[in-house]
Amino acid sequence: MGQCASPSTSNERRPPGHLDTSSLTMASAKIVVLVGVLALLHVSSASARRHSKPDPCDAAAADEGGFLDDLPGGMRHKKAPHPGSHHCAPARHGGRAGGGIPAVMTVNGFKRGEDGGGPSACDGHFHGDGELIVALSTDWFARGRRCHRGIRITSAHHGRTVVARVVDECDSRRGCRHNIVDSSPAVWKALGLDTDVGEVPVTWSDA
After folding, report:
1. Residue 138 and residue 104: Cα distance in Å, rounded?
2. In sequence order, what DSSP letters do the residues of 103-123 get, joined into one string?
3. pTM greater than 0.90
4. Where are the domains of the chain?
5. Where is the composition biased (Basic residues) (predicted)?
6. What single-letter DSSP state applies at residue 15?
7. Which of 49, 77, 154, 180 has a Cα-to-Cα distance from 35 of 20 to 30 A?
8. What would the pLDDT profile of 120-155 be if each residue is shown by its tens digit?
9. For residues 70 and 188, what is the distance between their CA atoms, to the nearest angstrom?
């Protein structure tokens, strides 16, 4: 009795040199898809770079040849060293709920012979305790771009607000923390705060 031939299967051995066209087609399709995805990612990345805003900290960072290095050493506001991490956060209206950037407000005299050091960096003058004035940490001082501008300071304790004028830098390269609003006694009085406390939490923004 004759035997029936067994049907061929997909695993049947193929002659040498045979190419599996279906596998090649699938591999080619995968390569095309991958190239397309990479192209889309590249376009998205380029678009993001074009539309992204420049880092405001780049402009505020004081380099060795910058605005502040042209000033006499005595015109840079000095504070006692204090450890702390760098927080570069330029203030903008509505930057946080409550209308400003969190900061630590300290009290300081701007008159000759007081602990503020030399004359103010913005105008080279000393100032009285009755003036509503402040010195800002180096990043916020922005290489003098906030000189004579008003900032709105809000007490974190009771929400009272006052506008004070920037006249000096609290030099973060010489020990001042990076989140300081160093203010005159008049600012504290306007906010209803006791200067004996020394430091209080506030928020601030450009007025």
Report:
1. 14
2. EEEEE---STTSTT-SS-TTT
3. no
4. 59-206
5. 75-95
6. P
7. 49
8. 999 999 999 999 999 999 999 999 999 999 999 999
9. 32
